[in-house]
Amino acid sequence: MPHVRSTATERVLIIGGGIVGLTTAHTLRRRGLDVLVLDAGPDRICPSRGNAGQIAPGHPPIPSPAVPPKALHMMLDRRSPLYIPPRPSLPLLLWLLAFRRACERSRYERNMEVLAHLSRISRELFDELEEELGPAATLEATGLADIWRTEAGELEAEAETEWMSRLGFPTEYLDGPELRRRDPAWGPEVRGAVIHGDGMRIDPAILCDVIRAKISSLGGLIRTGCRVETIRRCSGGWEAVMSHGEIVGAGRLVLTAGVWSESLARMMGVSVAMQPAKGYHCMIRLAGAPTIAAVLREPKVGVTPMGSLLRVAGTLELSGFNHRLDPARIRQLMAAARVFLPGIRGAEPVDLWCGLRPCTASGLPVIGRGLEGAWIATGHGMMGVTLATGTAKLIADDMLGEPVPDWAGMLQPR
Ligand SMILES: Cc1cc2nc3c(=O)[nH]c(=O)nc-3n(C[C@H](O)[C@H](O)[C@H](O)COP(=O)(O)OP(=O)(O)OC[C@H]3O[C@@H](n4cnc5c(N)ncnc54)[C@H](O)[C@@H]3O)c2cc1C
Fold first, then answer.
1. pLDDT score, position 72
2. How confident is the model at residue 163 (pLDDT cuts 50, 70, 90)?
3. Domains annotated on the chain, with CATH
4. What's the pLDDT tens digit per position in 305-328?
5. E strand or H helix at 151, and its extent?
6. Ligand 1 pocket residue status of 357, Cβ below 6 Å
7. Ligand 1 in contact with 227 (CB < 6 A)?
8. Contact (Cβ atoms closer than 8 angstroms) between residue 51 and residue 204
9. pLDDT, position 250
10. Nearest CA owner, ligand 1 atom 51
11. What are phi and psi of 285, to 5 degrees?
12. Which residue, 209, 249, 254, 350, is the most exposed by fewest CB within 10 angstroms?
């Protein structure tokens, strides 16, 4: 459909229909705005559909004081949870230098506080969303466990938990025997766990589909197979030019294209530096699976019961824009999980997947305004689901002239 033009100045155009774009469209529609979502998908590699399905309020950012001492090992060891294969790339080098700065304790603590504010708002809004969408959305407030097997893991968890308790997030400590009493799936090597009481779990693909259906039932429009190549100002606001030549206009625009946002962001006056961070999952059928979703601390692996299956997810690989699924990474995920959950031995994966997280160097998302009439929300790294509803609220409040909290200034694009 070449060069068809349509405009509607009252409309808000949302570019990207992952979890951030969908929650933004849903929030804006509920608050009375006309929304049109343009999404390049359906895309199996979209991380919003294949993530670990954990809503983890208070979770710290990736860059932390614990990372630099292990950095060299991570760059060279393919089995490391954070793997950075060396490659000649100036953007990667600049990103790594900024990442290094974000690991300084003062920056880490400040960023953790900002994420805590945003995730707290998000968590409250997930309760409202659950009420609105009902059980079909698969939002379950079962809590999340942080589980370790070494003394070093325990010390790291203690320090983080102390911070989270200070910031008001509910936590409960369990030693290994107590954890196994409550949930016999956990093996004898597990030394202890912290239960984060306000954690939730979901099936992320189902959640996206249910929000999508809700937006449509509220009169919002969602179009798939629409890759936006250019955005530009026009007399009534903004227009988007798609790869098939069609042009769609709107009064306002929100860019939520995940890790693919960078070039479009420049067209709205915003510079965002992100690295695609590849993560994997495998789904396994397991008799006697754990009842609670958990993060296995040392290998940084998430395990989440989803329907009759268990999702084992993790690894963060900075190897650029590619969707090569490396079977060795899957084997490594399974081996790491088996140490904590001996029942996994012999279980065959029924589905394998990889996708790209949009990672900023600071670990903070970028949420705020570009040129007049344009907003951006991206860079949510490994917390896009956890922070989605709060992100949508910040965008909607700002667009509708409501006050936004001071801490949100830290998330503004520069
Ligand atoms: C293995 C793994 C586990 C994870 N686990 C968790 C977890 O447990 N909890 C959590 O909170 N987060 C988790 N995450 C992170 C989370 O999945 C991401 O932060 C989140 O999905 C990002 O959402 P998004 O909407 O910003 O981007 P995306 O999901 O990437 O969506 C962007 C959308 O924009 C579309 N698009 C791109 N370019 C264009 C264009 N030019 N025109 C139109 N459309 C376009 C894409 O097709 C896509 O649909 C995990 C990620 C991975 C990989």
1. 66
2. confident
3. 75-105+139-199+274-360 (3.30.9.10)
4. 998 999 999 999 999 999 899 998
5. helix 151-166
6. yes
7. yes
8. yes
9. 96
10. 51
11. -95, 125
12. 350
